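Deliverable D2.4 — example input (structure tokens):
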């Protein structure tokens, strides 16, 4: 028995919890201090740039912000690293209600449109960032239309394939030094002969009018935090070398995920993390592979991604695995993979298209 007056030892359960709580608070305090330092430095630089009463003029334009808010630079979100900055804009996933309620006809049109856009990107050598942005914008735009809908057919008033290429035009202006030529996009639309997938012959004016309608519908706001924003940063944190087969496999899975409309309901950072996890499991962690014995989702990955392993093992990873197994199998696939098969079977892409994922 313990002596009278001696302190009762803390239980093994509560002590780590308390320590963890203090550590978490200390880390949060340190992070807050870093952010505040960045904010104040930026505020001082901004004051120097404006000078001569310019800061007062800016404040007059935004009367809702106090003097303290301006001094701390709270008018613009500040982040200690690039990943939290991008994650703050990772908010363009569509609702589960939309995925379930948009209708099978629209999903078929969408699958065809994404496949044709992928084919067009390969033929015009469009950057992967522009392709991912185009598809994300397509989904964001259609979701906006659905929220304003009167009935299910409203999503088909404007041909989804033409909408897809108009989104690619917008994305190329954002991501490329030189946007893709409108004439080439019009040719890609008009070469489609599939029954019902093209409603008429399109002109450059038609495509530009679609571009205007899309931008007005989304309020000129582009969902620029796509899977490409996160993929390479997450891959490096997971020990995946840039330019390697396992790195290519990450982008193969991410491009494959574009074809399945169910992935439009996930945050881009979650899908990117799932692809990195699966690439590590397939190429790095099995017996005889470089990182055999390492945990599938390390503390470094948790820190960098802000995503815990438990969150990954939800529907996202499971669905990505099922999608990989259905690749190139029309009887199992819920989407179209023609353009992906043509691209990812080439030697320049490690022939990944011929690898079956298990």
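Example output (designed residues):
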């Amino acid at each position: 028995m313990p002596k009278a007056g001696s302190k009762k030892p803390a239980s093994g359960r509560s002590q780590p919890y308390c320590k963890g709580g203090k550590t978490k608070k200390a880390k949060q305090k340190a992070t807050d201090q870093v952010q505040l330092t960045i904010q104040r430095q930026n505020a001082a630089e901004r004051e120097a740039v404006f000078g001569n009463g310019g800061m007062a003029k800016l404040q007059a334009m935004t009367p809702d912000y106090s003097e303290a808010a301006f001094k701390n630079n709270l008018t613009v979100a500040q982040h200690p690293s690039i990943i939290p900055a991008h994650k703050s804009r990772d908010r363009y996933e569509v609702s589960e209600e939309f995925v379930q309620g948009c209708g099978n006809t629209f999903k078929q049109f969408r699958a065809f449109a994404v496949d044709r856009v992928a084919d067009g990107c390969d033929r015009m050598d469009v950057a992967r960032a522009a392709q991912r942005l185009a598809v994300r914008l397509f989904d964001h735009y259609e979701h906006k239309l659905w929220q304003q809908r009167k009935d299910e057919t409203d999503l088909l008033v404007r041909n989804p394939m033409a909408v897809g290429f108009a989104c690619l035009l917008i994305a190329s202006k954002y991501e490329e030094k030189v946007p893709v030529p409108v004439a080439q996009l019009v040719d890609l639309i008009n070469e489609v002969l599939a029954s019902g997938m093209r409603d008429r012959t399109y002109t450059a004016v038609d495509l530009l009018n679609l571009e205007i309608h899309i931008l007005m519908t989304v309020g000129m706001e582009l969902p620029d935090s796509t899977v490409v924003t996160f993929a390479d940063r997450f891959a490096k944190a997971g020990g995946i070398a840039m330019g390697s087969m396992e790195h290519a496999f990450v982008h193969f899975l991410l491009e494959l995920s574009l074809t399945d409309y169910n992935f439009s309901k996930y945050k881009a950072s979650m899908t990117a993390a799932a692809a990195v996890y699966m690439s590590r499991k397939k190429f790095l962690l099995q017996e005889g592979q470089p990182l055999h014995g390492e945990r599938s989702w390390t503390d470094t990955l948790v820190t960098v991604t802000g995503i815990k392993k438990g969150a990954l093992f939800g529907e996202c990873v499971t669905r990505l695995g099922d999608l990989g197994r259905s690749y190139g199998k029309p009887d199992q696939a819920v989407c179209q993979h023609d353009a992906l098969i043509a691209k990812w079977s080439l030697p320049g892409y490690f022939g990944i298209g011929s690898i079956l994922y298990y």
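The chain has three domains: 14-80, 97-217, 227-354.
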